[in-house]
């Protein structure tokens, strides 16, 4: 039945599905995992780094991009679609700043991106954007924000979320481990993001890229060494927890 | 017969089988025959002995007695058996199946390297009646029967147990729920009438069906009354993926694999290492 109603985006199926939008969500699952965590004083974005070809310049393969000084996003899905969306969002951020003399709020730019995506689910001759995005940042009121958009054009605020390949596994891990203690300090929030990614990333710390925004500070991308430091700390804590467990059982 | 606008009389297409038409249609020229034979030779499934690389004269399971046969089809199933089963014992290669079809990445049919052959058969040194097959290549519809004949033979024994492991994309799973809410990856089982043990996961519900080589093996076992079970993992990541491979873990506790798996934590480490030698992803998706 799907095949009769899935050729054009502007056609509903009898049971109310927009198949092209649902297929676009499958395209998102082909991208590598991205996780976003909202802490009290920090927002963290972690992504599984794509393996680059030998002759490819690593710097041009980025999943985390700044949209403005105080907002950044990570995406999963079609690379080219992401580039288009990011460019439009960046222009909108500056246009907003020039027009109303205030930087965008995270919610505003998320709504802009979501509206853009929704437009493409309602025009003929166009297909939906095949990306989901995690948008993080701090507003002027100093509160941290995390939003997620998907190809259908919906957006929601989250405390922590994951998109891309194996996102379900990461989300289940976050549901179990996102506690007030876990995000009490900046380093704890960062460790939670790394731990969540390690659940699904095939080869450990060297395939993880991390970015944070602290209140009133610009986006900071972690170097591979800094990520490794956190990974070693996590592994140490794991070992100590296991030692304690075995001591208790003895 | 029909008359066209221009007054010519043409033969109207007719599905009725006429005597003369049949003969004319069936008469193939020598060239057609040659092409057909060449194609058949190209697509032949050959089962080769390991050391000598000569063809096996009889079917694999007619030559060797078999009590248990585990077949992994697809890269995730193969990775599961490699890390959990093949590392827990000493397995000896007894042969490999070489075949070519349009899915193969090479056009050279006579010199397939061992990486392309990818349908390798092993048996356990400590118990040579336990067989394992790692099949990473696609076996086309016209080749499946040949594969079955060369492996099982024309009159297979009934006292063996077959276990098949394979993967399928979750979008092929027909259900009234939306695929977004499915707990993928998840395991479903399908067994033949003679398989009396219980499966370690729910059975595959209608209207879902099994495809390709796993379906061919299962049908063959059902016809020949051989106890067989297929474990099908529905996943949304078809390439080699840690979470998908780990979804096969419940099978380790079943009778099919009992005694063949020793060190699970070590196997998990080996699996992680397998994942690191992964191919460069395409640039379309990030």
TrEMBL record, chain A:
The keyword Cytoplasm applies. GO terms for biological process: meiotic cell cycle; proteasome-mediated ubiquitin-dependent protein catabolic process; regulation of meiosis I. It holds the Pfam family Proteasome. It is found in: Cytoplasm; Nucleus. One of its GO terms (cellular component) is cytosol. The keyword Protein biosynthesis does not apply. Residues 5-27 form the Proteasome alpha-type subunits domain. Keywords: Cytoplasm, Nucleus, Proteasome. It comes from the Eukaryota. InterPro entries: Ntn_hydrolases_N, Proteasome_alpha, Proteasome_alpha-type, Proteasome_asu_N, Proteasome_sua/b. Belongs to the peptidase T1A family. The 26S proteasome consists of a 20S proteasome core and two 19S regulatory subunits. This is Proteasome subunit alpha type. The gene is PSMA8.
TrEMBL record, chain B:
GO terms for biological process: proteasome assembly. Residues 24-35 have a biased composition (Basic and acidic residues). It is found in: Cytoplasm. GO terms for cellular component: endoplasmic reticulum. Keywords: Chaperone, Cytoplasm, Endoplasmic reticulum. Pfam families: PAC1. Its main location: cytoplasm. Residues 13-35 are annotated as: Disordered. Chaperone protein which promotes assembly of the 20S proteasome as part of a heterodimer with PSMG2. The PSMG1-PSMG2 heterodimer binds to the PSMA5 and PSMA7 proteasome subunits, promotes assembly of the proteasome alpha subunits into the heteroheptameric alpha ring and prevents alpha ring dimerization. Chaperone protein which promotes assembly of the 20S proteasome as part of a heterodimer with psmg2. Forms a heterodimer with PSMG2. The PSMG1-PSMG2 heterodimer interacts directly with the PSMA5 and PSMA7 proteasome alpha subunits. Belongs to the PSMG1 family. PANTHER family: PROTEASOME ASSEMBLY CHAPERONE 1 (PTHR15069:SF1). This is Proteasome assembly chaperone 1. It comes from Gorilla gorilla gorilla (Western lowland gorilla). The gene is PSMG1.
């Amino acid at each position: 039945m799907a095949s009769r109603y899935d050729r054009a985006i502007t056609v509903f199926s009898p049971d109310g599905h927009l198949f092209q939008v649902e297929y676009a969500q499958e395209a998102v699952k082909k991208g590598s995992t991205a996780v976003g965590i909202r802490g009290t004083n920090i927002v963290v974005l972690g992504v599984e780094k794509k393996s680059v070809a030998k002759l490819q310049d690593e710097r041009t393969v980025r999943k985390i991009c700044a949209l403005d000084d105080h907002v950044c996003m990570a995406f999963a899905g079609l690379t080219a679609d992401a580039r288009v969306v990011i460019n439009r969002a960046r222009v909108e951020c500056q246009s907003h700043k020039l027009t109303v003399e205030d930087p965008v709020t995270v919610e505003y730019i998320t709504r802009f991106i979501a509206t853009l995506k929704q437009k493409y689910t309602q025009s003929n001759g166009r297909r939906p954007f095949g990306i989901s995005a995690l948008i993080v940042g701090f507003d002027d009121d100093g509160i941290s924000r995390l939003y997620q958009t998907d190809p259908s054009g919906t957006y929601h605020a989250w405390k922590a979320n994951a998109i891309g390949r194996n996102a379900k596994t990461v989300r289940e891990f976050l549901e179990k481990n996102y506690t007030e203690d876990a995000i009490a300090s900046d380093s704890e929030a960062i460790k939670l993001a790394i731990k969540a990614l390690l659940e699904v990333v095939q080869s450990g710390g060297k395939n993880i890229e991390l970015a944070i925004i602290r209140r009133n500070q610009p986006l900071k991308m972690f170097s591979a060494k800094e990520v490794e430091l956190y990974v070693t700390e996590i592994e140490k804590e794991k070992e100590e927890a296991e030692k304690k467990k075995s001591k208790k059982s003895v | 017969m029909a008359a066209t606008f221009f007054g010519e009389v043409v033969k109207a297409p007719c599905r009725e089988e006429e005597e003369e038409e049949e003969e004319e249609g069936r008469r193939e020229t020598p060239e057609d025959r040659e092409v057909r034979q060449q194609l058949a030779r190209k697509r032949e499934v050959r089962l080769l002995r390991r050391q000598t690389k000569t063809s096996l004269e009889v079917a694999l399971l007619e030559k060797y007695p078999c009590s248990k046969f585990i077949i992994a089809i697809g890269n995730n199933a193969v990775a599961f058996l490699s890390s959990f089963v093949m590392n827990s014992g000493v397995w000896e290669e007894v042969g490999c199946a070489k075949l070519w079809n349009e899915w193969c990445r090479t056009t050279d049919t006579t010199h397939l390297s061992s990486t392309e052959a990818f349908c390798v058969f092993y048996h356990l040194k400590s118990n040579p009646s336990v067989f394992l097959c790692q099949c990473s290549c696609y076996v086309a519809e016209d080749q499946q029967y040949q594969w079955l004949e060369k492996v099982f033979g024309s009159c297979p024994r009934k006292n063996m147990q077959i276990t098949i492991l394979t993967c399928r994309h979750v979008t092929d799973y027909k259900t009234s729920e939306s695929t977004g809410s499915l707990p993928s990856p998840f395991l479903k089982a399908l067994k033949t009438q003679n398989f009396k043990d219980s499966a370690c996961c729910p059975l595959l519900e209608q209207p879902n069906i099994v495809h390709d080589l796993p379906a061919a093996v299962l049908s063959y076992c059902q016809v020949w009354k051989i106890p067989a079970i297929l474990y099908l993992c529905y996943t949304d990541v078809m390439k080699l993926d840690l979470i998908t491979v780990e979804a096969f873990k419940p099978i380790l506790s079943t009778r099919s694999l009992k005694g063949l798996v020793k060190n699970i934590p070590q196997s998990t480490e080996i699996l992680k290492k397998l994942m690191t030698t992964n191919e460069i992803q395409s640039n379309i998706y990030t």
